[in-house]
Amino acid sequence: MERQLLKDTCVRENGGSRYAELFCSLSKLHEDELDDGSGNALEEFKYIDSSTALGVNFFLLYEQIHPKANIIFEWDKSSPLKVGGKSNIDIRVQEDKIITFYESKFLEPYYMCNSRFTESYSLKENYYDHWKFTDEELVSILRDFQSFTYYNASQLFRHLLAIVNHIVHNKDLYKDITSVVLNSISWKMEDEYLNLLNLSRRSRSYAIKRMNILKQEETDVKDMIQRFIDHYVTDIIPKDITLSFETSTYNNNVSLINNHKEFKNRYFIR
Fold first, then answer.
1. Which tens digits make up the pLDDT trace of 59-86?
2. Which letter does DSSP use for residue 183 in this model?
3. What pLDDT was estimated at residue 37?
4. For the chain, what is the total number of helices (H) and then of strands (E)?
5. What does the alpha-carbon distance between residue 164 and residue 33 come to, in Å, rounded to a whole number?
6. In this structure, are residues 243 and 178 in contact, taking their beta carbons and an 8 Å threshold?
7. 153-169 and 135-146 helices cross at what angle (nearest 10)?
8. Where are the domains of the chain?
9. CB-based contacts of 141, cutoff 8 Å, min separation 6
10. In the chain, what percentage of residues exceed pLDDT 70?
11. Contact of 23 with 61, CB cutoff 8 Å
């Protein structure tokens, strides 16, 4: 599907303006988090067609309804490798003894492909010493994560490395934590939005095929990441912490924000 068509449809059906107010006010703390994040997040949250706005809107509403939840936007406290930049994870939520890291997607899965690894990921010496895979295993791991067509498996692998590295290097920060979750949360295109695109028969067939591939890849990535955790992670993090991977959709989680009517209308959730 064409990126511009997806974005233009979102804007058109929301009144024609790309700019939209947040459903909740943004605190100075959260504003600073967005400002410090990568990808111009402080500007992006103003756009109705951006994944930043979707995530910020949802989790500000969540924070309002669940005041004990500690939420951080654009979490960037750890790096996947010893070289290169830090991983930038969209949202971090801590509730009691559970920390969940969310990688958030809106329209991207419907026009983007799985990202590629840079050359630095193929060199074993660039990984921290607690990673015990061999050179041959690393080649296989990267090949598996790179094999996905549309689902953002490679990005999730980079985030997983950063999260595990942060746990290993900052055990004191996790002494009261029992569960750490990496959650790939995305917006699901429902039939109403697909119809609004006014696609030709051929383009609609292609779009449906892509959506079916995404659905299968979501299942496959869950299995693959869990195998990776079982083989390479369980033995290097504290024994009293469980690390897991989940996938979810905003569509299926609107009950967590009390089925906020304006949120559902803006994001075509019925």
1. 999 999 999 999 999 999 999 999 999 9
2. E
3. 82
4. 9, 5
5. 22
6. no
7. 130
8. 3-266
9. 133, 157, 228
10. 100
11. yes
